[in-house]
Design a protein that fits this description.
With 341 residues, the protein is an all-beta fold. It has three domains: 1-41, no CATH class; 45-184, Immunoglobulin-like; 187-323, Immunoglobulin-like. The chain has no helices and 21 strands. The protein has strands at residues 14-16, 21-23, 44-55, 72-77, 92-95, 103-108, 123-130, 136-144, 149-155, 161-168, 176-184, 187-195, 204-214, 221-231, 243-246, 261-262, 267-274, 277-278, 281-290, 305-309, 315-323. The strands form five sheets. Strands 12, 15, 16, 18, 19 and 21 form a six-stranded mixed beta sheet that branches. A five-stranded antiparallel beta sheet has the order 5-4-7-10-9, with no helix packed on it. It is elongated and about 130 Å long.
């Protein structure tokens, strides 16, 4: 059943096209102002759609999937309404790596009768939409069979998007499966510095950070090489502390990425460059920690570097230094039978 605009309704009128019902409030009237209710029907076909949520590979890889895409994603299908409504679309919740069951979709169709045997079945198109979830964004879609996709994927600012697909009249054996592939939003890196014994507070330390991430406003992925300056901060009695600074991006302001992001799952190299000495005494590293995972062979206290894995959340790498101040060590030997003094 379909309404033909404009739809004239009175106070108290409720209309549910999916259920083919209308509720009407009838006031006092006569034959001169009688109320008419008109039902208009169109021919329709019914097919099936199945929605699947998948994880995309990290940038630059065809084997490593994004480790930070998890949870449940929400979808809707144009024309598939929630129970008891003809305005609110039904929401389908799909966990990562899972699919919905076959969802019945009814579409208007101009021809009243099914095709003759041997002819192509009747079909229509429908839009399937991912609503978008924090921390992830849609990167691609596909269908099975592959010829069920129509046009290109539409990407929305909230990280979701939609795809128009063909729906074939028939049972679940003829369903259209739509796959949505997501990647987690690029991660940021924060370098922290704790002033250990002998290190003056607020002394500036310089770090070199290298990895792979966006290098321009267009989002082109390339080699990132940045210098970061961090002031040494005091340790906390409970552990941790210090001062931190984000790796600067390629521009300034929100629209120019004032903070550099890195490809999820890629390796970020951090090296402490300066100072090497303070007042002639060597500056050494006593500890390096991270909120992520160290890459193989890292960290190195002697080499003053740490390689960590980029993740969706902000990754912190914390260096603790101390000032090596050599002193004179006097070694004495007393022989057996020798009197003291």
């Amino acid at each position: 059943m379909s309404n033909i605009p404009p739809v004239t309704t009175a106070a108290g009128t409720t209309l549910n096209l999916a259920a083919r019902t209308v509720g009407i409030t009838i006031a006092n009237s006569s034959s001169l102002n009688q109320l008419s209710v008109e039902f208009v029907n169109v021919f329709a076909i019914t097919g099936f759609v199945e929605i699947c949520k998948r994880v995309a590979f990290i940038d630059g890889s065809t084997t490593i999937i994004d480790p930070d895409v998890a949870g449940t994603f929400r979808f809707n299908i144009a024309g598939v309404f929630a129970a008891g409504s003809n305005t609110t679309l039904q929401t389908f919740n799909v966990p990562v790596g899972q699919c919905t069951g076959a969802i019945a979709v009814t579409l208007p169709f101009a021809q009243p009768a099914p095709p003759l045997p041997g002819l192509n079945p009747r079909e229509g198109t429908v839009v399937v939409t991912e609503l978008g979830e924090p921390g992830a964004f849609l990167v691609s879609t596909s269908t099975f069979p592959v010829d069920r996709a129509v046009g290109a994927t539409t990407f929305n600012a909230n990280g979701g998007g939609s795809r128009t697909v063909r729906v074939i009249e028939g049972d679940q054996a003829d369903e259209t499966i739509v796959f949505f592939f997501n990647r987690s939003r690029p991660g940021q890196l924060k370098i922290c510095k704790i002033a250990g014994p002998g290190i003056p507070l607020n002394r500036i330390f310089t770090f070199r950070v290298r990895g792979f991430g966006p290098i321009n406003a267009a989002g082109t992925i390339g080699a990132v090489d940045r210098l970061v300056e961090v002031a040494a901060g005091p340790p906390n009695a409970q552990g941790g502390g210090g001062s931190c600074n984000f790796v600067p991006g390629f521009g300034f302001g929100i629209n120019n990425s004032e903070r550099q992001t890195f490809v999820i799952g890629s390796v970020i190299q951090t090296d402490e460059l300066l100072p090497v000495t303070i007042n002639g005494n060597p500056v050494l590293v006593s500890n390096i920690t991270t909120t992520s995972t160290f890459f193989t062979g890292s960290p190195s206290l002697l080499g003053r570097f740490a390689d960590v894995i980029a993740r969706r959340d902000v990754v912190e790498v914390t260096y603790t230094n101390f000032l090596f101040q050599p002193s004179i060590l006097k070694v004495c030997k007393i022989g057996v039978g020798t009197a003291l003094g």
